[in-house]
Every structure is written in C-alpha cells, then in structure tokens.
Amino acid sequence: MSTEIKQLQPQELWAKFADLNAVPRASKKEERVIAFMKDFGKRLGLETIEDAVGNVIIRKPATKGMENRTTVVMQSHLDMVHQKNNDTVFDFDTQGIEMYVDGDWVRARGTTLGADNGLGVATIMAILESTDIAHPAIEALFTIDEETGMTGAMGLEGGILKGGILLNLDTEEDDEIGVGCAGGIDVTATREYAEEETPEFKIGYTIKVKGLQGGHSGMQIHEGLGNANKIMNRLLFDGFEKFGLRISEIDGGGLRNAIPRESKAIVAIDSVREEAFVLEMQSQFETIRLELKTMEPELDISVSPCNTPEKIMDLGVQEGFTRALYAACDGVYRMSADIPGLVETSNNIARVTVKNGSISIACLTRSSVESSKMDLANTLRATFELTGCEVEFSGDYPGWTPNMESPILKVLTSLYKEINGEEAHVAACHAGLECGILGQNYPNMDMISFGPNIKGAHSPDERAQISSVQKYWKFVLEILKHIPEN
Questions:
Q1: What are the Peptidase M20 dimerisation domain coordinates in residue numbering (predicted)?
Q2: Which of 146, 173, 186, 461 is an active site residue?
Q3: Is 330 a catalytic residue?
C-alpha cells in the first residue's frame, strides 16, 4: 500500500508523505509525530529544536551560491483531523493511514487522508533531505495543534525564527496564492437539566442521520452541504410539534472544523401514535432528501424501534433547546463586501450532545473581520442564553490581513504565470491559517500561502490530486531558486 504511494512522482515527496502517514498524529496527541520529526532532523545532521509548546524547528544552510539570499521559513502543521465513517473499523491512536491510488487521486480507506497538512510537511522534509535542490538557508517550522486551537502558532515565541520570508504550505487549490485568511472563535453552550421518568405509555425509537459528505467548515461552508445536527433538530422539532416526541439522548457531529456528517437520537413517543409518527418521519425524510439531493445524494435518514429509554429531557428545556438550535446560525452569515466570492463570516454547529442531564453545543465561528466575528459569536451567545445555557468563548485567534504589496507575492505571481502560462488566483480564504497568529510575534515577516489540490479535507472523502502535486512541486522548486537577496 505505502509502496504504491512511494512510486508516485515526485517520489521524494510522496515517500515522505507515506512515512509521515504511518505515524498517528491527532491534534493534541502529537507526541509521536514530534519525536518522528526530531529524529528526522537529527538523522540528517541538521540543527533541530523543540520549543516550549512542542513545535519543531529544523535549520538547513543554503546550498552553494545561495548564501546571500533571504532566509526562508517553510511552515506546515504536524497534526491532522481524525475522522472516519461509522462503519470503518480503525484506531487512529495505533494505526497508520491506509492509502490507495484512485486514478489521479490518492485517498484513504474510510478515514481522512492527512494531506491537510501532511503534503506540506512532506514537501519540507523532501527539501531538507535533498542534496541537489538549490535553496537559500531554510528554517523548517513544523507547528502542532493547528486543527483544534492553533496553540502551536500561538505559543511560538518571538525571536526564535530568523527568516524574513514565510512560505505556508497549507492552501488547497493549486492555482491559488493565499494572502489572507479568517480568524476564528469557539462558541460552546452548555446547561444541566432535570431528567424525567419516561411514562409507561411511551415507546422508544432511534433516529439516525448519516451519509452526508461533511467537509471543511471554512473552505466548504458556502457549498450548501448538509449539517447533520441541523437536520436532526428539524426532525426532532417536527416530531414534538406533531406527536409530542420527547428527547432522551443526542450524539451528533464531531470536531469543530468539520461539517457534521452524522447524528443519532434516542426518543420516546406515545405508543398509540406510533404508526402516524413513522409515516410523518418518512415524509420528512423524503422532503429533506429532495432539498439536498444535488449536494448530498448519499444522505440516509432512518427511524427504528428501540428499547424505551428510562429517562427523557424536561419538557420546558426540550422546547427551548430545539428552538435555540433551529434559530442558531449555521453556514454563511455574511459575504465579503470587498473581495468578490469570499465568505466573510460563518458558523458551524459542529457538535451536539444530550445525555444524563447535560446539554453541550459546540460551534466554530469564523470571520476575516474581527468585529463581524464577535457580532456573530454574540448572536449565538444570545440565542443559547435565552434557553438557559451558559455560553463560553475560547480558542480566539486572529485573521491574516492581506498585503497586496508583498514582495514575495510579486515573486510568486510572476513565477506562476511563467511556469503555467496563466495568472494565479490571488485570494484570501475562509479557512484559518497560522499566518495571522505568527505575524503577531513576527510582524515584519513577508508571508504567503500555497499548496496542491486537496478536496474533501476534514472528511473521509479527503483526497489529493497526483497531477496537482507534480505541478505544485515544480512551483516550490522554482520559488526556492528565486528567493530575493538579503
């Protein structure tokens, strides 16, 4: 399996990607990949350090004739999003990613691939190991925990890096040169509630929503993908309004930066209304399927009998909870007035759990405008507080303000046109890149972001395009040759 991947071109890059993907590297569980990267640098005889928070920095001197060029920081993050299909048996803590070639794409079997940002990491590793690639002095910066808090970038102290140019290799369109990104904030609503004994005349049912594509909650938030938490709440709301459905448990979604693909609820209904309830649910299923048939052709919604739950949610709390979830913004909140086609502000209702007298709703709010980000965060806060929830803001990180006069931007746009015969798409993105955070301690560093085509990031449909990686690798090598002099 990894042998097949290692035979792809450019071999030096794909071989490093295969080696990296053999190492479990979930966000906040990066101990093994940190050790892997430190061993890699030391084996090459290069200066290798781990900073106070776990970022790894490897320094390589310039090749002959490039000593007078500006030192370049090549940066990618070590962690990856761990998501799998419900029917996939896989242990992210112990297993390496199982990859395969599908035409012009590399995929993983039932899990995320880790191309975000593993291809960037592998690119830097290949250059560090090379003996025939021309380049200026390089500081390789491998950050941790980008996907669930950006604590690596936040914890990188000023003064450690000496480079004047930063190449961030975390963009997912090969014709795009990134010059800005959104900031983000985690919004978490919680509350306790009293459970009631389930009346004897009620029976149990399980409702499942699955088969959604999921995806990146920033880059794909505008695509009209289904959100399992919102779909489930729609079903629960309808079931209560028409049949007095009562909620016992909900388990929906996963990571904040992934659009939720699946949700499961255990509910109780009056036994005398069972037939009408099932017919109504089936009608709702068909309505939702028709609404989402273009973007979500694999959507599957099912309802099936189960053991009657012993406890159900307090009626007043349930009414407030389902109404708050209905009212809460999910998806695009505002488009940019300055950059055509760019999502300015959005929210992802990522994780909803109800069990044992506790409610938790986890959101990720993004915006390229700080005031708009906080406006939406406060909108969510007000919505959830109206139903008795406590709301916490955490993980706040800044956006990256575009600099259209950037010298390295001029280098990249010129090279891209020369190599590809067309103009690059210079853009800000709605994802969270680490450049804005790194720029706080390195305000004079000239930063740019680019990368190969990666589709379906943060979902088990994640895939990397082989021909695009070849195009991107050629671009990287030319950029290193054309780094300006000091």
A1: 208-276
A2: 146
A3: no
